[in-house]
Amino acid sequence: MFIELDFESEDPIYLQLMRQIIEGIAKKELLPGDALPSVRSLAADIGINLHTVNKAYQQLKQEGFLQIHRQKGVMIHPDGIPKATEAYKMALEKNLRPLIAESICRDLKQEDFSEICERIFDNLMHGGN
Amino acid sequence: MFIELDFESEDPIYLQLMRQIIEGIAKKELLPGDALPSVRSLAADIGINLHTVNKAYQQLKQEGFLQIHRQKGVMIHPDGIPKATEAYKMALEKNLRPLIAESICRDLKQEDFSEICERIFDNLMHGGN
DNA sequence: TATCTGTTATACTTATAATATAACAGATAA
DNA sequence: TTATCTGTTATATTATAAGTATAACAGATA
Q1: Which pLDDT tens digit goes with each residue over B101-112?
Q2: Superkingdom of this entry's organism (chains A, B) (predicted)?
């Protein structure tokens, strides 16, 4: 599991961290029950503050990705990740909408949009990373 | 063209404004050459500061959606919106990636994801709004 | 006892978002 | 000519979020 952060990015560090972990789970590089580094060691590894790591962990816990034991540490939720609910699908739709609206403005065809999505799915699920 | 803002949202107002205008263009409610309200009148209408409107306009101008004449006012770019470039497609892919990664984690099938996209495309292009 | 874990608290800096006024320059209509 | 509209620029202030810096606490463990 490699963490790559862009300190020049507008996206906050804790968000980038969350996404990297989520991507790791999607790629099956991180499996249910797998241990994650402690807030302190990961913070030290990356060279950031432990509170920034903690914020990412807490939010991922909140969303059901992680299980945190006060002394044992942090792990990918051993029961697996909660399935997509209707609420999740609605939030997803809300996030996709502006992306699709701009694509339409720029005359990007639905087929081309779908092809990009397909490529991402492929890369995450069967990708050779 | 109706502007609906959510002042409780985490998304900044100027961003919501940008998206509403982009969605208006996608829906063909706003056509190339169409005039937009002045920064002052729109700000007064919505009940926000003129600088917030100006920020949205400036950014939309920067991205090629709007044309701004110092005295004539603001209009949807009469030459049409710039087509999707390779750079745009790469940025789009970067934006889609975390959404798709989380969908995979939550066991949302690619077909279901595509169906959501299709519904949004439909709603924006042929939608009865 | 020493060291690890997450957790909590406090304080500080920085950047962004949003607002509040004010003024300027050019175009236009009364 | 005067008043009013346009975008633009400048300055200041407030509020919030992100990130950092220390410090301490409580429970588990070697």
Answers
A1: 999 999 999 999
A2: Bacteria
Q: List all residues 6 or more positions away from B27 whose beta carbon is below 8 Å from its beta carbon.
A: B124, B125, B127, B129
Among residues A104, A99, A98, the alpha carbon closest in space to that of A117 is found at A99
Alpha-carbon B59 to chain mean position: 11
Strand C footprint nucleotides (protein C-beta < 7 Å): 4-10, 16-21, 26-28
Task: State whether residue B22 sits within 8 Å of chain A by CB.
Answer: yes
Rounded distance between C-alpha atoms, residue B69 and residue B116, angstroms? 39
Query: What are the extents of the domains in chain A?
Result: 13-76, 86-125
Cβ atoms of residues A74 and A57 within 8 Å: yes
Determine the protein residue whose CA lies at the shortest distance from the C1' of C8. Answer: A51
A56–chain B Cβ distance below 8 A for any pair: no
Q: How far is the CA of A58 from the C1' of D19 (A)?
A: 16
What are A14-50's pLDDT values in tens digits?
999 999 999 999 999 999 999 999 999 999 999 999 9
CB A103 within 8 A of CB B24: no
Q: Does domain B13-76 have CATH number 3.30.450.150?
A: no
CA proximity to A34, closest of A71, A70, A74: A74
